[in-house]
């Protein structure tokens, strides 16, 4: 899809009220005037920056003018829009069509975000809770053979858990085995 067709498709979205403010339109016009190759001449830039005309009229005239000039001019407009109003650029209807060509296709970027939205601390916390519950269930089982196995495991684990924690666990296991 050419940039002129995209601009024609996005024209209503861009000219609707409160999408672009006057400062952003002025920045876009100045960028189109100063970029190489020069898209707008000085006279054209002054015409589209005229504060006497309404913003809607100036923007509509600018977009029609760029469409008449060709695809390269429309492409530069999109580049200026991306630089000066990135959020609006991302919300353009033509961008949404380009981003999701097949509605049944899984968006891998969104899926990756969904899987990685929590950090490593969350993973460690969940893992610690799960390991703690498993150890608690394993040690608190009424079967006496399990207590003996748990004692052996805790006895050989001074590297994994500190000596003080190991001693507390061993005392707890001894109390359980007496009951």
Automatic annotation (TrEMBL):
Associates with BCL10 by CARD-CARD interaction. It comes from the Eukaryota. It is a single-pass membrane protein. Residues 38-96 form the CARD domain. The chain crosses the membrane at residues 120-138. CDD domains: CARD_BinCARD_like. This is Caspase recruitment domain-containing protein 19. GO terms for biological process: regulation of apoptotic process. Coiled coil: none annotated. SUPFAM superfamilies: DEATH domain (SSF47986). InterPro entries: CARD, CARD19, CARD_BinCARD, DEATH-like_dom_sf. The gene is Card19. The lineage of its organism: Eukaryota, Metazoa, Chordata, Craniata, Vertebrata. It is found in: Endoplasmic reticulum membrane; Mitochondrion membrane. The keyword ATP-binding does not apply. One of its GO terms (cellular component) is mitochondrial membrane. Keywords: Disulfide bond, Endoplasmic reticulum, Membrane, Mitochondrion, Transmembrane, Transmembrane helix. Its main location: endoplasmic reticulum. The keyword Chloroplast does not apply.
